[in-house]
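Tutorial, part two.
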Amino acid sequence: MDEGVVFHSPLFLLRLIKITGKSRFSVTVPKKVAKTAVERNKTRRCVYSSLSKHFDTILPGFYGVFIAKNTILTANLVKIDSDIKEVLGKSRILK
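Running the prediction step on this input gives:
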């Protein structure tokens, strides 16, 4: 991931690298952001849920890692969804 490109948004940091095949994504929520496992898992599930809405519009050949920032704990699903769309648009991997 050190060779990849980084894109910032208010809620996330997105690291992208080129791969062959379908695009795949991971979500991490550091312990600095959410102290308990329950908070981290809930946040990760919300991000995956919002990200799944955009899978049809993502170009193949990318591996991305969404790293959550502190501001995600106060965000609702609508804000998370719009932020994901914003950061994917910045990265130019949308069809």
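The CA atoms of residues 52 and 93 lie 15 Å apart. In part three we will examine how such features are distributed along the chain.
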